[in-house]
Design a protein that fits this description.
Blueprint: H1 17-34, E1 56-61, H2 77-91, E2 95-98, H3 107-116, H4 120-136, H5 153-167, E3 169-172, E4 177-180, H6 181-190, H7 206-214, E5 219-229, E6 234-236, E7 255-264, H8 270-275, H9 284-294, E8 297-308, E9 315-321, E10 332-335, H10 341-345, H11 365-378, H12 381-384, E11 390-398, E12 405-411, E13 422-425, H13 431-440, H14 477-491, E14 494-499, E15 505-506, E16 519-522, E17 525-528, H15 563-566, E18 567-571, E19 576-581, H16 589-592, H17 595-599, H18 611-618, E20 631-634, H19 641-655, E21 668-670, E22 674-680, E23 686-687, E24 693-695, E25 699-702, E26 705-713, H20 724-730, H21 733-742, E27 750-751, H22 757-771, H23 788-806, H24 810-827, H25 833-843, H26 848-859, E28 883-890, E29 893-901, H27 906-915, H28 917-923, E30 930-934, E31 938-942
Parallel strand pairs: 1-2, 1-20, 10-12, 20-21, 22-27, 28-31
Antiparallel strand pairs: 3-4, 5-6, 5-7, 7-15, 8-9, 8-11, 8-14, 10-13, 11-12, 16-17, 16-19, 18-19, 22-23, 22-26, 24-25, 25-26, 28-29, 30-31
The structure holds one RNA strand.
Length: about 950
RNA sequence: GCCCGGAUGGCGGAACUGGCAGACGCAGCGGACUCAAAAUCCGCCGCCCGCAAGGGUGUGAGGGUUCGAAUCCCUCUCCGGGCACCA
């Protein structure tokens, strides 16, 4: 059968998928041609020339990676929500900036290129086109002039520019902000800041000066152990490695390798990143995750003089502790296996009387340590956590202010990457230390008086008076900390310190498909390319042959294969010289760190963004606020990485005067995920979800065989994908939009149920029928004024829908609109024109094509686009009824309802209640002990 | 282990700040229309008792505060997420 021919019995003008498709493509073409979604700037390049006195609003989705596998219905959930909100705000008089870009550098395109031999740009651009097509079909009201892709040369030119800004800055701890590196040089050369080694600046060699400056830069080269992932062919940042020591992407093995790498000094901003969280309108969970990630803890560094058996020279072991008050409970020290002092302190022979359990069965401490280290590097972190293990170094350390000498161990429960890589073992007050002490027979000394009910075999971490602690005895934990810190500082044994879990950001990637780092090297180190040499474009790479990515391989950047690119002769101000280029590229996070700024001014080739345009769009509506994007919507999986990196870059740009406020995103909402049922057969193999029959009650089957249902992510592996294209074909884009918004609150995960989508289509069909005759296509609206009941319902609906839209509670807004429409349907006469007009405007944000079609049918073409019509406002006079029905409780139980005047007082309400037969029966003539009237809400009687 | 969320009919969810639990939708049941079916329209729809009026009971479990608790407090169970030998 011809798909476009109406089926027998279906009215020719019914709102079905075919009609929806026709309406949708027609209006999309009109909107595109007329530019209704273009947001005018008050200044700057992309202005449409219209001045705008309206308040501004900047709304963004987290931009997507243009994947080759296309979208499923879960992807656009957040996009639909922002689009609805934006349309509502636009109709409420806001000048809204809303657009979409693509985060298009990254591994999949490069992997695809390796397999096909095709340049990643070709594949990337094809994917972008496909994704644009799928998103356009949804009718998202983006300002298309402003979209960017991070792979555009015009875009990454500015990513590189920002890199240079960071490279050419240092963090001044006194003013707690980034400053140009030239000001550091001035301070060194003027003597205001002492040069390294206490010598005069001009006495230093060129190499020494370069080294002093380079070590202060916010972007710097470090020779550090890195996370090398052979399967991905790149090193990864700490954030990209899971707790199990595998890559977050792909779950591949990761190995430590020492390597020269670019680092970003994000730790300098730790305190500001932490403090400013309090000023953000973000989900508390995301703030908590960032706080945990930063991991600020206050404590002390304490120095323990240590020496091995028969060694004369003492070497200080510095430990970090948050409990300096427990110093006198220290019964041993522990160094991390990788700690540099291990080799210096390890003894040649066991001291007399060393317990067997401390030796690891080795003949000498040196052998024991070597064996222990070898074993530690083999074990995964998960295996390590089972029980405490370690070996004795044959060395002892002196506890400050105490006469005791304590043994020094190496143990893998101490991590080199946190604090100083060494701890003081206090088994009385720390449970981990307690477990270690029990395993090796070390003494336990309590230094805080535990309450009598505290079990003796557990460490006590609570508050209480200090004991066994000399001058601290009797003081509580807080006071003990203060006093011991004072004494340690005086004696030179320690000091107060703040420690962070967060490390600097490893910024190099050994990949081709990323932004080249605009740096060259001479014999003394890195040299920035000048701004006028940007963009530094990726060279063509012809050698796509896959490299052996063995476990024992070494990192090798693909750009190193382009010989003509590696070595470069250029003039950077002191005549033509030969330089070596930086061969690494930037991580995928770089492009997403600042794309919101480029949306504001995408074609500016003088600056990354015009300052006046930036100020207009990023200004905080509240004076003194942090500014930034007014609403940012995206998945919670970016809670730490993307959102922390972007905040860091933004703060650097703020310090250097390139942006007007300290934060990039003032309000953040995490949209939930659409989950889908997946079905497994008896073998545990997933079967295509669309072929499964049955129900929860009667059981599910596939091909007659029973299958088990589970809820999971939508995707190929679970064979449960539903694509937007499927939904467009069966229902149309507006129905898909309405259904996705109706499923539940925006932040909540929810299971997809294709069979329920029809409900949203039926709602639209009923609206359609109340306005349009399905048989003739003629208008069905009446020119009669709505009666009082309908008018009041209309205004109550307007009032509620406005509030729900403002609060992004689109599910309840849709319910209210449905109720209004159901009332129109019940009347069966066609909608009064006034009601139809208001209803269509309220529907416009949710189902823009549908509303635009009805709007034009109602008003003709002279009324303009509904997207620019005014969102209805309720008449307050019509919100309050003269009489209200109020429930009556007797002794806390509902016994009836009475209708009273809206302004009735308590006496009148109670009198009305007592007149109600069922209420009277339950009161039974007894005396009222208490009466209460919550106006319009409840009458309560107590007898 | 610690820190965040959450638990409401067969299902998704609603109930604003303590005031009619279950809006709206799906599924189900009944009716009208139809030769019939689909579509549409009308109605019913937590559980128990009752012909009905009505009564009892009910928001994961137990306790508390209150005239009144899905909502506030305490204890517990389960589910989801984050962190986790972080000194």
């Amino acid at each position: 059968m011809d798909a476009t021919a109406p089926e027998a019995g279906i009215p020719p003008h019914r709102y079905d998928a075919a009609l929806a498709a026709e309406i949708e493509s027609r209006w999309q073409a009109v909107w595109d041609a007329s530019g209704v979604y273009q947001a005018p700037d008050p200044a700057g390049a992309p202005s449409s020339g219209r001045g705008s006195p309206d308040p501004k609003l900047f709304v963004m989705d987290m931009f997507p990676y243009p994947s080759g596998s296309g979208l499923h219905v879960g992807h656009p959930l957040g996009y639909i929500a922002t689009d609805v909100y934006v349309r509502f705000k636009r109709m409420s008089g806001f000048n809204v900036l809303y657009t979409m870009g693509f985060d298009a550098f990254g591994l999949p395109a490069e992997e695809h290129a390796r397999q096909t031999g095709q340049h990643p740009r070709i594949n990337t651009e094809a994917n972008i086109d496909n994704m644009r097509r799928q998103l356009d079909r949804l009718g998202l009201g983006h300002d298309k002039r402003r979209g960017v892709a991070t792979t555009d040369v015009d875009y990454y030119r500015w990513t590189q520019w920002i890199f240079l800004q960071i490279f050419n800055s240092w963090f001044d701890p006194e003013s707690r902000r980034a400053r140009p590196i030239s000001e550091l040089v001035d301070e060194f050369s003027s003597g205001r800041r002492p040069a390294p080694g206490g010598r005069a600046w001009n006495e230093l060699s060129e190499a020494e000066r370069r080294g002093a400056v380079d070590s202060h830069r916010l972007a710097y080269v470090a020779d550090a152990p890195v996370n090398w992932c052979p399967a991905l062919g790149t090193v990864l940042s700490n954030e990209e490695v899971t707790n199990e020591g595998r890559s977050e992407r792909g779950n591949h093995e990761v190995f430590e390798r020492p390597l020269k790498q670019w680092m970003m000094r994000i730790t300098a901003y730790a305190d500001r990143l932490l403090e400013d969280l309090d000023r953000l309108d973000w989900p508390e969970s995301v703030k908590t995750m960032q706080r945990n990630w930063i991991g600020r803890s206050e404590g002390a560094v304490i120095s323990f003089p240590a020496a091995s058996f028969r060694q004369l020279e003492m070497r200080p072991i510095e430990v970090f502790t948050t409990r300096p008050d427990t110093l006198f409970g220290t019964t041993y020290l522990v160094l991390a296996p990788e700690h540099p002092l291990v080799d210096e302190l390890v003894a040649g022979a066991w001291p007399a009387g060393t317990p067997d359990s401390w030796t690891g069965g080795a003949a000498t401490p040196r052998e024991a340590v070597a064996a222990y280290r070898a074993r530690a590097s083999e074990l995964s972190d998960a295996d390590r956590s089972d029980s405490k293990s370690g070996v004795f170094l044959g060395a002892h350390a002196a506890v400050p202010f105490a006469d005791s000498r304590v043994p020094v161990f190496v143990a893998d429960y101490v991590l080199m990457g946190y604090g100083t890589g060494a701890v003081m073992g206090v088994p009385g007050e720390d449970q981990r230390d307690r477990e270690f002490a029990e395993a090796y027979g070390l003494p336990v000394v309590r230094t805080v008086q535990a309450p009598p009910e505290h079990p003796g075999e557990l460490a006590y971490t609570g508050d209480g008076p200090s004991i066994n602690s000399r001058f601290l005895d009797g003081l509580d934990v807080e006071a003990s900390k203060a006093l011991i810190l004072e004494r340690l500082t005086e004696a030179g044994f320690g000091r107060h310190t703040v420690n962070y879990r967060m490390r600097d950001w490893l910024f190099s990637r050994q990949r081709y498909w990323g932004e080249p780092i605009p740096i060259v090297f001479d014999d003394l180190g890195p040299v920035a390319l000048p701004d006028d040499m940007l963009p530094l474009e990726l060279p063509e790479l012809t050698d796509w042959a896959p490299r052996a990515l063995a476990r024992d391989s070494e990192p090798e950047p693909p750009l190193g294969r382009v010989a003509a690119w590696v070595g470069v002769e250029t003039d950077l101000g002191d005549g033509p010289r030969r330089y070596r280029r930086e061969l690494n590229t930037m991580p995928q996070w770089a492009g997403s760190c600042w794309y919101y700024l480029r949306y504001l001014d995408p074609r500016n080739d003088e600056a990354l963004v015009d300052p006046a345009v930036e100020l207009y769009w990023m200004a905080d509506p509240e004076p003194g606020g942090v500014g930034g994007v007014d609403l940012y919507v995206g998945g919670v999986e970016h809670a730490v990485l993307h959102l922390l990196y972007a905040r860091f870059w933004h703060k650097v740009l703020y310090d250097l005067g390139h942006v007007s406020g300290p934060e990039p995103f003032r309000r953040l909402i995490n949209q939930g995920y659409i989950q889908a049922y997946a079905y497994k057969d008896a073998r545990g193999v997933y079967v295509p979800a669309e072929e499964v029959e049955g129900s929860l009650r009667e059981g599910f089957t596939h091909g007659g065989q029973p299958v088990a249902r589970e809820l999971g992510k939508m995707g190929k592996s679970l064979k449960n994908s539903v694509t937007p294209d499927d939904m467009y074909a069966a229902y149309g884009a507006d129905t898909l939009r309405l259904y996705e918004m109706f499923m539940g609150p925006i932040h909540q995960d929810r299971p997809w149920e294709t069979r329920s989508v029809v409900g949203s289509q039926r709602v639209l069909q009923r609206v359609w029928r109340n306005v349009v005759d399905e048989e003739t296509g003629a208008l069905r609206v009446t020119d009669e004024a709505p009666d009082d009941d309908l008018l009041r319902l209309l205004h109550r609906t307007v009032d509620g829908v406005r509030a729900d839209m403002e609060g992004m509670r689109f599910n309840t807004a849709i319910a209210k609109l449905t109720e209004l429409n159901n009332e129109l349907t019940r009347r069966g006469t066609g909608a009064p024109r006034e009601v139809a007009d208001v209803l269509v405007r309220m529907l416009a944000p949710l189902v823009p094509h549908f509303a635009e079609e009805l709007w034009h049918r109602l008003h003709g073409d002279g009324a303009g686009s509904v997207t620019q019509a005014e969102f209805p406002a309720a008449d307050p006079a019509l919100l309050a009824d003269d009489a209200v029905e109020v429930p009556v409780q007797v002794n806390g139980r509902l016994r009836g309802r009475v209708t009273v005047a809206a302004d009735a007082d308590e006496e009148a309400a109670v009198a009305a209640a007592l007149a109600e037969p069922n209420v009277a029966a339950h009161v039974g003539g007894r005396e009222l002990r208490k009466q209460l009237y919550v106006p319009g809400r409840m009458i309560t009687l107590v007898v």
